[in-house]
Amino acid sequence: MDPAYNNVQGTTAVDQNGVPVQDPNAQYQQYQQYQQYQQTDPNYYQVPDAMATVNAAPVEQAYQEQAAAPVEVPADPPKEKGKSFLFYLFKFIAVGFSYLGKYGTDAFNPNAMIENVNTTADGRVVSSKTATRINAQKNKIRNSPKYIALKQKLQEQLVQEGVTKLEEPVIFEYIIMDEKAHIIKGHFNGCSKNDINAFLVNEGYEVFSIETSDRINFLYGNGKFLSIKLNTKDLIFWLTQLSTYIKAGISLIEAVRILANQMSNGRNDSKSQIFHAIVYELSMGTVFSEALAKQGKVFPPLLINMLKAAEATGNLEETLDEMAAYYTSINETKQQMKSAMTYPILVLIFAFGITGFILVYIVPKFQGIYESAGLQLSGLTVFLLNLADFLKKYLLLIIGIIFVVIIVFIIVYKNVQPFRKGVQFVMMKMPVIGNIMIYNELTIFTKTFASLLRNNVFITECIEILSKITQNEIFKDTMYDTIGNIARGEKISASFDGKWYIPDIAYYMIRTGESTGDLANMMQKVSDYYGQLHKSMIESMKSMIEPVMIVLVAVMVGGILVAVIMPMFQLYEKISV
Q1: Within 13 Å, how many C-alpha atoms sit on residue 238's CB side?
Q2: Within 13 A of 521's CA, how many CA atoms are on the CB side?
């Protein structure tokens, strides 16, 4: 039986015997389908005997009568009426009476509503259930034998210490609980456990332990074994916001406290501990610049010295704005350098990766073909096959050696001054990269020098600060020469005369500013000029690197393809002959 017939016979037009039943429309369509089957292939599609007894005339007549009959269109269902205002009014009154019966008159008392919520130390509102859960967690911690023992030991230490203080500050490690029942472990630089305990309690913490030891001082003290450094982005934000808060009339200590909570974003990370340590130093009467200096290498020396000069002149807000603009400019310069170097490095890594993959996995497969065909290979092909065989055997060893060499180079560059100076000398002598490095150092040097002079910092202190800021050993030598010239009564410009890395324009501009007594403004002009040159050279280098990288990749991949494909032509000619 044909499957198509079985499918049609399964409709409601016929029963098991082929007799028309139910819908005439479906019956007529089924009859037409059987006619089409029979016309297509009478030998294959056989209409069953039951279907042959069906008379088409009454079926077709019934179909036409049904088609001519008027179609009854169902009427649209009645639209549901919207709920009136009175419905919602009665519902509101009913809900109000239910709350009145449940809570009494306190259901509509604002004071009672306020009593059902609590606020945390940072001003956020929490529900009564959350407050109950937090209080239960606090009580659980307080009743823990571990924290009971720590708190008893702390109380004994505070009583024993009394009002005595250490002559030199040390690092204290504390364990506290905040308003959310979180246990926090941090470090403070201080001279007394009582002072640190009083500060932490005043900040809203519950103190369990304050300890110090040689291990803690080694890890977090002057050794800076685990010290951190505030990145430029966070420093810019911190300076900008601090200046805004002070201009708004907020006290310095309160502004730093707000920023400590704002930048930590509810986390107890190292940045939060740094800013709380600054708040502690300010609360103990330490001046702002000294409070920053006690945080080790977190804040740059330039900022600390600029703030020290601002504290003497009373221009703290202006200095904060100026330093924010300075570090913004420096950050833009660094980002330009990074963006200029990122593209070629990524292209080189991609090119060498693709080349290595071809040499290790693709080229060796052709070697068997060449040997079986007995082809005479060219020198380039032989070299390529030998290189592929060598890489296949020693690839991991080569990668390990390269990795070790890079790590050793970085370590030696950071810690060995003569090696660092030699590398910088070679790079500064290179055609394009050398000018970029020189212009970058000149921009930072003159911009920093101008900022220091405008804030009435002594020239000898300016040079000393500049020698700490720059990482270029060749420019550091110039700073040291300048200090010696000033001590001998010579001019500052004499240190820049005849130096191969100091452009003539920069030398004469510095000399002119020194002669006219307007050295700060002239330094700023030098910074603006070479900053623009540095930016345009980076853009030119990026434009030049792109086609160079494309050509390099094409030569590497194309050379491999030529070396591999040329013997295939010989093989084709040999087969043709």
Answers
A1: 24
A2: 6
Note the helical H segments in 186-315.
Answer: 193-202, 214-220, 232-247, 252-264, 270-283, 288-293, 301-313
Is 0.70 surpassed by the pTM of this model?
Answer: no
In whole angstroms, what is the distance from residue 197 CA to residue 440 CA? 47
- Taking the domains of the chain in order of start, what are their residue ranges? 3-65, 89-116, 136-220, 232-328, 336-577
The neighbouring-strand residues paired with 190 are 170
Listed in sequence order, the residues at least 6 apart from 327 whose beta carbon sits closer than 8 Å to its beta carbon are 232, 235, 236, 239
Side-by-side strand order, sheet with 170-177 = 183-190, 170-177, 206-211
Token pair 């990370």 in the structure block, residue: 269
- Among all chains, which residue has been given the structure tokens 């009913």? 94
Mean pLDDT of 246-260: 89
For residue range 479-489, what is the model confidence (pLDDT) as tens digits? 888 888 777 77
200: Cβ contacts below 8 Å, ≥ 6 apart: 174, 176, 207
CA 253: distance to chain centroid?
30
Question: What distance in Å separates the CA atoms of residue 69 and residue 50, rounded to the nearest whole number?
Answer: 30
* Domain 232-328 identical in fold to domain 336-577: yes
Q: Considering the domain 232-328 in this protein, what is its CATH number?
A: 1.20.81.30
- Residue range 336-577 forms a domain whose CATH class is mainly alpha
Query: Among candidates 21, 17, 9, which has minimal Cα distance to 59?
Result: 21
144-200 pLDDT per residue, tens: 999 899 989 988 888 888 777 777 778 888 888 888 888 888 877 778 888 888 888
Separation of CA 163 from chain center: 46
Pick from 428, 438, 427: nearest CA to 533: 438
